[in-house]
Amino acid sequence: MQMRRIAALAATLYLVLMVPPASGHTVLVNSTPASDSVIQSLPSSVTINFAEDLVSIGNSNSISVIDANGEEISQGEVSVSGPTLSKQLLVSEKTGLFKVDYRAVASDGHVIKGDFVFTVEATAATTSEIEVEPINSPPITTENKLSIYLILSATAIVGGLLILIFIWKKQPK
Asked: Which residue segments constitute the domains of the chain, with CATH numbers given?
């Protein structure tokens, strides 16, 4: 009887402690431009996709894109379509680091806030515009003739001596 109670208590504790809690809140799945990405030109809009549908209640959803000078470059209203939140950006040739702050309301009413950054770099020169000179120097050789066998032999000798010293010190006197 006592053993059954202990087994039942152990099984109950196992089930309670080992089952992960359910989380019904949505998460950011991906974005365009992607978080920490480096792109060649500023896109026309920012799009953020979540794991579940969003709801549009007044101004509850927002996206703000800020350039390196602290100026907002997003314009217009936020568009909500299922799990996707998007907003148009100003047409600009700006480069540098851009920060995207967002706020979305999931269908369960949970508010998701977050931010990420992306970088716009100026278009680099193409490979046809870059002149490359051939390498005419011979390969560098070293005069170090120390072989791997010498290193292994020295390691084995030193290791063997250390083992002998430890064995010798352990012997009773």
From this structure: 28-120 (2.60.40.1220)
